[in-house]
């Protein structure tokens, strides 16, 4: 939305203003396009500053706004002296329309990659799962969620990973039974130090992140039911694949692990 909203408004409002002003000043097409391009940037700049979406999104939005005004000035040049009718060049318009479709599709793909598909759209577009309900979990390693996606935080993530390796904690985690949507299943995490001794008094949380929709994400606090063993009942709201983020805070030590789990249907 950070890209689609300003781009959609710009590609709608700029042509409307262009044709209105062009009707009033028929020989000033390029001047009108230039003025509208500058005004669109003047309007977008405060919005981008107050709702900073990232430099890549800002660059794409600025390019779309400028190109919208520039394209109108290009494909609708001033009329010939002998005629007051508006001139239209089909060749440049066809090329520009092609690249406009490319920009639109890339914007849609970027939005889906960032926020995922809604449940209804995913159900209609994605293939149905084959076979019976199977629940499985696996944890590929101590990879902090979201740090790999943000380059500016990579050094923090890398330092944390090195600390976790040096700390040498032994973490065992998983379900005590098959997780089924709508049913409470116990999720357990056991934390041992390098010497195999229980790590007591830690704050352990398990965050379940939905790929298709952030609206279903939730976090549960795990209770210490015995030394070094933390457990809580989890009731998944949706079937399918989830990302599981386990955070273990003990004094000044922060341990974080990422895993995947599949939730079966009822």
What features would you highlight for this structure?
8-stranded antiparallel sheet; 266 residues; Immunoglobulin-like; alpha+beta; 2 domains; elongated
What can you tell me about this protein's structure?
With 266 residues, the chain is an alpha+beta fold. It folds into two domains: 112 residues; 127 residues, Immunoglobulins (Immunoglobulin-like). It has six helices and eight strands. The chain has an eight-stranded antiparallel sheet, with no helix packed on it. A hairpin with a 2-residue loop joins strand 7 and strand 8. Helix 1 runs parallel beside helix 3. The longest helix is centred in the middle third of the chain and has 26 residues.
Beta fraction of the residues? Answer: 15-25%
Number of strands: 8
Text of the CATH class of the largest domain: Mainly Beta
Name the CATH superfamily assignment of the largest domain: Immunoglobulins
Largest sheet: 8 strands, antiparallel
Mean pLDDT: 77
Outline:
elongated
As for the number of domains, it is: 2
The CA-CA distance between the termini, in Å, is 35 Å
Order of helices and strands: HHHHHEHEEEEEEE
- Indicate the structural class: alpha+beta
Helix % is 40-55%
Whole-number radius of gyration? 27 Å
Strand order of the largest sheet: 1-8-7-4-5-6-3-2
CATH T-level topology of the largest domain: Immunoglobulin-like
Weakly predicted, low-confidence segments: 131-136, 138-153
